[in-house]
Amino acid sequence: ELIGRFISRDIVNMTTGALFAESGAKVTLLDRDTERGPKVAADIGGTFVETDVTSEESVQNAIDTAVAAMGKVNTAINCAGIGTAEKTLGRDGPHSLEHYQRILNVNLVGSFNVARLAAAAMAKNDATEDGQRGVIISTASIAAFDGQKGQVGYAASKGGIVSGTLPMARDLQREGIRVMAIAPGIFLTPMLMGLPEEVRDQLAVDVTNPKRLGDPREYASLARFICECGYLNGEVIRIDGALRMQ
């Protein structure tokens, strides 16, 4: 059953939240965007909570609000992600340590922050006949496997999500909480929509098949499938059109 879905922040969360709501889920959206977030939540009949994923207090407040609004939390989907294109040693000097730490703090620490506090809420749920109480899905990236130059911080943060998926699944087996990760390729998010069409077309050239950018609804559909397929656990799924970055 799709009850009490809990979606973390980023552009993909809006589409994922909408698809889950269409499927009958109760949705709480967490985001820093206080303009679009409440509007999207209202459109899908959900709840919005302004949230900083790097803050324990902020995330705990968001989860408490979600439980109050939905009755329980049984799915958490982490989509928070930032990145800067910066080489380890560039023309202007070494990679900014502040930028590197910020990327890891949002992408990796922030995702773990949401996961651990959501798991505590899920552990209070009544177990299903299969002993299940919830599922956590975090967003990695194909950069975790074949990151390009200038992606050292971003690739490291997403690699941490990849390597943390199995041990977290093992940690939460007693509570009946599954843990999965999705590794998207190049998706048509608003950031890419702002690029000229010829630039977007060039990005799609390297995709094996189909030769286009990913649709956020495809990410959302995969997240829904993970929720519905109870035997998926401790694994990372690439969704990238067989793209392997140069």
Shape: globular
Count of alpha and pi helical runs: 9
What does the radius of gyration come to? 18 Å
Low-confidence spans? none
The main pleated sheet reads as: 7 strands, parallel
> What sequence of helices (H) and strands (E) makes up the elements?
EHEHEHEEEHEHHEHHHE
Write down how many β-strands occur, each being a DSSP E stretch of 2 or more residues. 9
Structural class: alpha/beta
From the N-terminal CA to the C-terminal CA, the straight-line distance is 41 Å
Order the strands across the largest sheet as they lie in space. 3-2-1-4-7-8-9
Write down the overall mean pLDDT. 92
Percent of residues in helical segments?
Answer: 40-55%
- Beta percentage is 15-25%
Topology:
Layout: E1 5-7, H1 11-22, E2 27-31, H2 36-43, E3 47-50, H3 56-70, E4 75-78, E5 89-90, E6 93-94, H4 97-122, E7 134-139, H5 143-146, H6 152-171, E8 177-184, H7 190-193, H8 197-205, H9 216-228, E9 235-239
Parallel strand pairs: 1-2, 1-4, 2-3, 4-7, 7-8, 8-9
Antiparallel strand pairs: 5-6
